DNA sequence: ATGGATGCAAATGATTTGCATGAAG
DNA sequence: CTTCATGCAAATCATTTGCATCCAT
């Protein structure tokens, strides 16, 4: 699998047509597992681990291996973002499901909340001076949540 | 190992006295491997993987397992930061070695450069409204570097 | 002396790979 | 009917654990 990122910011989650066309344009097939996994991501507005995704599959025939392969594929195709919360699991979230956002994770209870604030406009532009192009960023916050602080 | 973070922003890399006192205050010992690993991190101003650290050890007797244990310890003590570049390796960098900074990683060649720009003042303060305290952030940039673009 | 740290061997757990079968285009 | 995807089994790789020994305090 060497497909370059090819989703030009056009994919809207649940937009099955767009989903199909991304796969088609790479001669990849629209299969049951791929559709179900995409829908699971769509209906969960927080990053999911491989085993969380696997656990939500209704088609219990679908193998864990398929989930791994699918997430790697989706990542290459620019359908999902890989997100790191500094624990032992990689998490995945649909790109463009909602507008661009970040997360705050409680260091104690590991609860996750979305954070709508993002980098100021033009922040990435500053970096163009470095000679890099196609710049993206990953930004996550960590803290102690209200309940954990009082507990 | 359950020591809470206890380095109140005071540790300066290479400041062996401070390093010793952090360990001492937790009844932990200042050993050869710990010192050498700290120095390796100090002299490499970019995040290192476990195996990179292991490879730089001059005392070849030091076991890989010790590197793992040491990095977990340093992280709990707030001596290092764990950094994620979305590949298969966790990386570690000394905190306070230089002033707070971030990185930009080339998605092709995986080269890493430091980025001095950080979040605007007051950015994290906005998040206090969410009820979280002791907020930190992780921010990394990804892009295609100059040489990879022309190549 | 004594509690913590290390090295070595072995276990664990996540992720990947090979291959024959099954399904999408 | 041809190519790509899946399931299953087995391999691989990073990371952790148990335990006897060693070393810093």
Verbal overview:
The structure is a homodimer of 151-residue chains. Chain A has 151 residues and is an alpha+beta fold. Chain A has helices spanning 16-24, 32-42, 50-56, 64-77, 123-128, 146-150, and strands spanning 48-49, 80-84, 90-94, 102-106, 112-115, 133-144. In chain A, the strands form two sheets. A three-stranded antiparallel beta sheet of chain A has the order 1-3-2. In chain A, strands 5-4-6 form a three-stranded mixed beta sheet. In chain A, helix 3 crosses helix 4 (64-77). The first copy, chain A, is globular, with a radius of gyration of 17 Å. Chain A starts with 15 loop residues before the first helix and ends with a helix. The model of chain A is unreliable at 1-5 (pLDDT under 50). Chain A binds chain B through residues 82, 84, 86, 104, 106-107, 113, 115, 117, 119-120, 123-124, 126-127, 130-146, 149, and chain B through 82, 84, 86, 104, 106-107, 113, 115, 117, 119-120, 123-124, 126-127, 130-146, 149. Strand 6 (133-144) of chain A pairs antiparallel with strand 6 of chain B.
Characteristic key phrases:
three-stranded mixed sheet, homodimer, three-stranded antiparallel sheet, 151 residues, Dna Ligase, domain 1, DNA-binding, alpha+beta
What is the topology?
The structure is a homodimer of 151-residue chains.
Chain A: H1 16-24, H2 32-42, E1 48-49, H3 50-56, H4 64-77, E2 80-84, E3 90-94, E4 102-106, E5 112-115, H5 123-128, E6 133-144, H6 146-150
Parallel strand pairs in A: 4-6
Antiparallel strand pairs in A: 1-3, 2-3, 4-5
Helix pairs in contact in A: 3-4
The structure holds a DNA duplex (25 and 25 nucleotides).
């Amino acid at each position: 699998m060497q497909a370059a990122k090819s989703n030009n910011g056009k994919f809207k989650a649940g937009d099955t047509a767009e989903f199909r066309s991304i796969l088609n344009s790479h001669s990849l097939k629209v299969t049951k597992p791929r559709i179900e996994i995409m829908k699971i991501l769509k209906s969960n507005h927080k990053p999911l681990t491989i085993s969380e995704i696997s656990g939500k599959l209704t088609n219990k025939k679908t193998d864990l291996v398929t989930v791994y392969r699918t997430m790697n594929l989706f990542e290459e195709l620019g359908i999902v973002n890989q997100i790191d919360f500094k624990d032992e699991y990689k998490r995945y979230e649909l790109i463009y499901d909602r507008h661009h956002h970040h997360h705050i994770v409680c260091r104690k209870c590991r609860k996750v909340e979305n954070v709508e604030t993002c980098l100021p406009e033009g922040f990435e532009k500053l970096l163009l001076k470095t000679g890099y192009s196609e710049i993206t960023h990953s930004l996550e916050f960590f803290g102690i949540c209200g309940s954990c602080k009082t507990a």
